[in-house]
Specification:
Length: 454
């Protein structure tokens, strides 16, 4: 009997997968001072990175034009919600961290974005924020995407902390209330993710829709919803906000990140496993899953969840779940971290060596943040050694030599895969968050080994 094309492709792919896995090896990391890059990180941030992003401010129209930053192919005739919100958050956070000088120029940069969001992105009829406007602020895509709403709420909360502007706090609270009314899945829990302008759910057909897949729930969106709720709880805590934050933490821990080797990216609204189409790419993906005994993992999302969950626990006043944190980190460092050169690989399967060995900027940032959080609050030599190696990698290999802004992607050896520095999906958010966490850790007294072991 002749095997079908799908079966033959699966068999061939499994053979290639196993050969690749057997060939991959890791070498032991070299210990060193985890804070050895702190001076350069601070200098880069103050004199290169933040000024680079400050060029995006549109002094005439308000908001930000990503194409002005340089090193980008981003269009200059549209404004996308996530991009604008992330830059509002970034400039607000930079101001709170003490950057910007006596003239508070980064607070002014944040205000330009906040005003543009409030004036042009906010839907005064149905609530929430549009997905996209043109450069003058006229809505061009009025759909409501939960991922974008989460970043708007996150930005509003951070801007309120930086500026003390009560209007921003009110805006964040109103957005939370809108999402409670329209985006909550009352039948199954969690949140639906895609809507028309008037908040009718977009549930079919299952296709990629701006962010993630219409009709499904995603780890990516629910993770950033948890981040946004954590930020809101810090400035405008209420019983309903606290309840939503607790639910988001529980969902992420129970459904999407129950175990690092079994993290799940997408589920159906009732939390069941969604059906997947038999495309050519899907056949190859299923063959790898069969060979490795698990679904594709993103090490970056795993470690991002680890430190975000810790932060949510802190805000909620819960005891930190260090065993869960350590389990995620141990998996990422065992299978996803490049012990020889530094850097976090893009992805893999189960408890096997990484299969996708590129190193994308945001994943490097999430590992740097997670290691900084761990080393600051519960120091361990293993984390400290990798922290120093990771910081060295991003400063020497990920950062563009001319601008010091991190490049989109480099290979496992540090060769440039994608040199883009700015894009609608690449702003200051990830790397600023990571470098501030690293600097905060390196500027505080370190515990002795005996104290750390208690």
């Amino acid at each position: 009997m002749t095997a079908s094309p799908h079966v033959r492709l699966v068999v061939v792919t499994i053979c290639v997968v196993l050969a690749h896995a057997c060939a991959r090896t890791n070498e032991r990391a070299v210990p060193g001072d985890p804070c050895r890059m702190a001076v350069q990180v601070a200098d880069d941030l103050e004199h290169h990175v933040l000024p680079f992003w400050a060029r995006t401010v549109d002094g005439r129209r308000g908001g930000y034009v990503i194409a002005r930053a340089g090193g980008t192919e981003a269009p200059d005739d549209t404004r996308q919600l996530v991009t604008q919100a992330r830059l509002v958050w970034s400039f607000s956070r930079a101001h709170r961290a003490g950057f910007g000088g006596a003239d508070a120029r980064y607070l002014a940069a944040a205000r330009a974005g906040y005003t543009f969001l409030a004036t042009h992105f906010h839907d005064s009829v149905h609530g929430g924020y549009y997905w996209m406007t043109d450069r003058d602020g006229h809505p061009s895509d009025t759909r409501k995407v939960l991922y974008g709403q989460a970043f708007a709420m996150f930005a509003l909360s951070e801007y309120a902390r930086a500026s003390g502007d009560g209007a921003a706090i009110d805006d964040a609270r109103r957005l939370f209330d809108v999402l409670e009314r329209h985006a909550r899945d009352r039948a199954h829990g969690g949140w639906l993710e895609h809507f028309t302008r008037d908040w009718q759910p977009i549930v079919a057909p299952q296709q990629y829709l701006l962010v993630e897949v219409a009709g499904l729930k995603s780890a990516n969106t629910h993770l950033h919803m948890m981040e946004a709720l954590t930020g809101l709880a810090e400035v405008a805590a209420s019983a309903s906000v606290t309840a939503a934050l607790r639910e988001s933490l529980a969902i992420n821990r129970r459904v999407f990140f129950a175990a690092p080797e079994r993290a799940v990216a997408l589920v159906a609204p009732d939390w069941s496993r969604p059906r997947r189409p038999w495309t050519r790419g899907e056949v190859a993906e299923r063959a790898r899953e069969l060979a490795f005994g698990g679904t594709r993992l993103s090490y970056g999302h795993n470690v991002e969840f680890a430190w975000m969950a810790h932060r949510a626990e802190t805000v909620l006043g819960l005891a930190p779940d260090w065993p869960a944190f350590d389990a995620v980190m141990a998996h990422a460092l065992a299978f996803g971290f490049d012990r020889r050169r530094g850097g976090l690989f893009d992805g893999g399967y189960g408890r096997r060596a990484a299969w996708f060995t590129g190193k994308t900027w945001w994943a490097q940032a999430e590992l740097l943040t997670a290691l900084s959080v761990a080393d600051a609050r519960r120091p361990r030599p293993a984390y400290a050694d990798v922290l120093g190696q990771q910081a060295t990698w991003v400063m020497r290999q990920q950062a563009d030599p001319a601008t010091r802004v991190w490049r989109w992607s480099v290979s496992d050896e540090g060769h440039v895969n994608d040199a883009r520095l700015a894009h609608d999906w690449k702003t200051a958010y990830h790397d600023l968050r990571a470098t501030l966490a690293y600097l905060a850790q390196c500027r505080q007294p370190r515990l002795s080994a005996s104290q750390a072991s208690r």
